[in-house]
Amino acid sequence: RIIAIVCVIIHSANGILYPMESESRQVKDLSGRWRFRTDNSSGRDTGFQERWWERRLAETGHVIDMPVPASYNDITQDKSIRDFVGWAWYETTFFAPNAWNNEVTNVWLRVGSAHYYAMVWLNGEQVMEHEGGHLPFECDVTMSLNFGATNRLTIAVNNTLTPNTLPPGEINHYNGKDDYPAGYFTQEYEFDFFNYAGIHRPVKLYTTPRLRIGEIVTSSDVTADHASATVHYQVTVTDSSRVGQEMASYNITVVLEDSTGAIVNKTSGGSGSITVTQPMLWWPVGMHDQVGYLYTMVVYAGRLGLSAPITTDVYRLKIGIRTVTVDQTLKINGRPFYVIGVGKHEDWDVRGKGFDWSMVVKDFNLLDWLGANAFRTSHYPYAEEIMQMCDERGIVVIDECPAVGMRSANNFVNKTLSHHLNVIGELVTRDRNHPSVIMWSVANEPSSQLPPAAQYFKTVLDRARELDPTRPATFVCNAGYDSDLATPYVDVVCVNKYEGWYDDPGHVEVIQKRLSYFLTQWHEKRSKPVIHMEWGAGAIAGFHSDPSLMYTEEYLCDVMREHFATFDSLRTGSNPVLAGEMIWNFADFATAQATTRAYGNRKGIFTRQRQPKSPAFVIRDRYRALRNQSVAERQTELDLIGKHWVGDYAFLENMTQARLNDVTTRLHSFIISRYI
Ligand code: GCB
């Protein structure tokens, strides 16, 4: 049997700031070539019986090179590694400088993510255990390090999924079936992407002073006329040198700097607010000329010295000033925001789900090329570096938990629920300071028509809103509008439907009628904005036909045109049905092998190698047009209404006559469409 997982989690979920260098902090990245072996014993437990963490991994048997970060599955030519299920062992060695060995420094070990279950030993001593891929975990390793010497780091990861993991899965044993090899088993799951495994994100060491900034929580309010904003903050400081002693009085100073580094305002204390007059708001692409504006919140923490405060720790956090609200529609900074986005995956050739800057930057360049303003982190939290880029590039994120494939009643039990609540805690704690994140998605396509789903999702959605009252929460639904039991608890209805593909395959002629009916039903039923979160069709690059047939590039183009006509009829008017559309998927991606998948899922508008299929150009035309249209609308509004219409003559005088005419015409039609 695959080893049962019984563990105590030793890591801190309250406060997991991204490791940043500063005058008080150093970061050492342990990425690179590690040593690796899988435990192929039938119980996958030899590593534990023989205590592999106590010596060099090479002494336990044959080891191979393995890059970190990367999924291990596609690195070798060995099918048994590609399809391995169970414990895989990693090891690296590193040097810990003597300079870190002093009375005032703590050293932290942080794993960006490891899929699915991870156990960590440093110099033979267990320091961490963590359940769940996609989220970071860390601990203070100061007492386990050999300073001025080499250290051995061993990490074992297990990709086994059970009905109570997120995502869930199952191991099927074929014991007693004489026509299968002895001990044969398979791992099955109900989600549609390959269960890549390994150490997926960088492993880092970083130092902090003993008295350190543990957590920073920020949010902002903006006045209706955008003339002023308030940034709220809360800083938690911990002092490991004083555990069990009377706590010292801390001194916390918070300085807000603009993007040039100029000081906007400052204050002090562990929590409070900072006023910003004439703030530069954070806007997504398409809503303003100034996209993704970020301030830096510089937090200084220290003790109150006898004559002056003694600063020990400094952390710089990028923040954006913006609000997200939901009434009849989704609004950013009080203005309607229409989502034109993509569903994505962290999925690339060779490295699988392993973080890779080249692939990440390429994907952002493609999002820009497309004109998209958003994506969903389908179906799990993405790397923190990706979230940072979204902030900077003005890409809105719907941030999703790894709760995908919850298709049976045994997924909606207390064991899963308690893990789900933990995951939401870890996700919200990690991502709540990102202005790009506008909504939490607690799951994708659970069987929300099953009776236990109602209370289950009410509980997890409430938890997300309790942890973060500043953002709406949802889950992505594919149950029927007449059978779903959980959408009453969401703030925005997010639905998946593949009209022309899973529904009415081959029949693009029914798309407009059926899709319009479907989306309108959802809107009427819940009286909440609706985002069509997944739609699309398989298109194998290089397959062509006219008239179009399923799986050709032309077919996806036809499916798109029908969807666009429907979306346009539903996204306008005084009470629009639709608040957004997201094509599934940005790029082809790897899945489990199945008769319904031809070398993975081919619904990408880009190939897995990030080359455009012809549908990419169709969607680009639409997204760019919508993006430019909304820039023009919003800019006109800001220029003219925001600057008190014609009162600001200096501003008007600087315009060419042609621009003035253009602005006046646009303003006129904007006012008519918006207010009359
Ligand atoms: C869905 C799922 C997504 C799949 C997609 C498909 O509804 O949410 O994970 O990949 O359909 O292509 O079947």
UniProtKB/TrEMBL annotation:
GO cellular component, one term: extracellular space
One Pfam family per UniProt: Glyco_hydro_2_N
Keywords: Glycosidase, Hydrolase
GO molecular function, one term: beta-glucuronidase activity
GO BP annotation list: carbohydrate metabolic process
Domain Glycoside hydrolase family 2 catalytic, chain residue ranges per copy: 327-626
Glycosyl hydrolases family 2 sugar binding domain ranges (all copies): 28-209
Protein family membership: Belongs to the glycosyl hydrolase 2 family.
PANTHER family linked: BETA-GLUCURONIDASE (PTHR10066)
Designated name of the protein: Beta-glucuronidase
The organism of origin for this protein: Ciona intestinalis (Transparent sea squirt)
